What we know:
By secondary structure, the protein is mainly α. The chain has 8 helices and no strands.
Amino acid sequence: MVRMTPTGDGGPELPGTADVAAAVEGDEVARQRVLAVLHPLVVRYCRGRLGAGPAADEAADEIGERVAALLPGTDGAAFLVAVYRLARDVTDSVEDALAGRGSGVRPRRLRVVPGATAAVSVLSRLPADLRDVLVLRVAAGLGVADVAALVGSSVETVRVRQHRALVRLRARGQGAAAAGA
């Protein structure tokens, strides 16, 4: 198993273009630097989508394995977008498994954490584009420009999607509170 091991404080930063290019060319030191920078971001993204616990950690490990395999021969400019899409696909698979809709990632070891199902349920009600922006901005702690680069849209579009996601969640929360009163 390839594990993306963090170094430093794990703050939200993206791997440098030079490191990605060198890693794509097969430089093992650059590959390790890229994986180390991506690890905390991937973990935050998974925990934001799946809740803290074994399902999120297992998804992050799976993404780490796939990212390591993805590096050689990847177009360096599109690398971060490919990582984001890979993370989205893996977490979608785990969400399906938690909801009983699919096999998920390594289902023989997948365990449901208390609260994770509720978090997945709330986030899964959002359209994918809104949910992903919200998770990357709030859970992963990325800046607007970084999220825009990852999802392949403009900074303005990211801001609008985040706003729409929060408005929808707020409306659902108020609707649920009114129904329970």
